[in-house]
Amino acid sequence: MLLKELRERVCEANLELPRHGVVLYTWGNVSGIDRERDLVVIKPSGVPYSALTPAKMVVVGLDNAVVEGDGNPSTDTRTHTALYRAFKGIGAVAHTHSRHAVAWAQARREIPCFGTTHADYCFGPVPCTAPLSEEQVRRDYEGETGEQIVRTFAGSDPLARPMVLVGGHGPFTWGRSAAEAASNAVILEEIARIASATLTVDPNAPPLEAHILAYHYERKHGSGAWYGQDADHPRAT
Predict the structure, then answer these.
(1) b or e along 89-102 (b: 16 or more beta carbons within 10 Å of the residue's beta carbon)?
(2) Overall average pLDDT of the 3-26 stretch
(3) H helix or E strand, kind and range, residue 12
(4) pLDDT per residue over 171-204, tens digit each?
């Protein structure tokens, strides 16, 4: 993919966030990576979504050094690059401060899989990271945030659960493309909202049965996924 095309796709994915009400003002960002050149395109820091254009996207290397762009990259850049270095199968990362997902993050609670809406997109609970220590914050807050996410997914497939809550902070999501990462951010907010409502109805609501979780996840994302009309796009909804 040409870098120009990646800029366009990342810009469009950023613009999806306010369209779906999961960001306000400048609260969030989407990035995408060119794996052949290890270059990351990311939203510029502090720029309102209404002012975003592909030309304003900033390009950085995996070492976080700016390669192209007149502005500063997002302050979350070091979190994004930590995920790209560790999760080789992902192509994009999104971060928001969406209301319900942040509430779960502030409660330091993972989101249990209560039903099939959740199971369709995340194979099990949405994990919540442990809080950072004072030393981690002083050393490299954003980079350590990424490393804490990586530790949370040790031994598991990040594409099977393409979303996480950073304790006391908020959600990060990822996907194979910028559009998918942004879509997962919107989906995570809905999962969090439904989970909150579920616990309001019944504080002792049980998690979804494991065999139903597996069935729903596999029909969209398994090797023989059969959901939708196009076998090349098993994530269609």
Answers:
(1) ebbbbbbbbbebbb
(2) 97
(3) helix 3-19
(4) 999 999 999 999 999 999 999 999 999 999 999 9
**What's the whole-model pTM score?**
0.93
Output the CATH code of domain 3-221. Answer: 3.40.225.10
Pick from 6-10, 79-83, 231-235: least confident: 231-235
With CA atoms as reference, report the closest residue to 51 among 27, 75, 15, 77: 15
Buried b / exposed e over 176-195, threshold 16 CB at 10 Å, is ebbbbbbbbbbbbbbbbbbb
Residue range 152-172, pLDDT digits in tens: 999 999 999 999 999 999 999
As a whole number of angstroms, the distance between CA 31 and CA 199 comes to: 33
Please identify every residue annotated as catalytic: 120, 227
- Give me 154's structure tokens: 């040790």
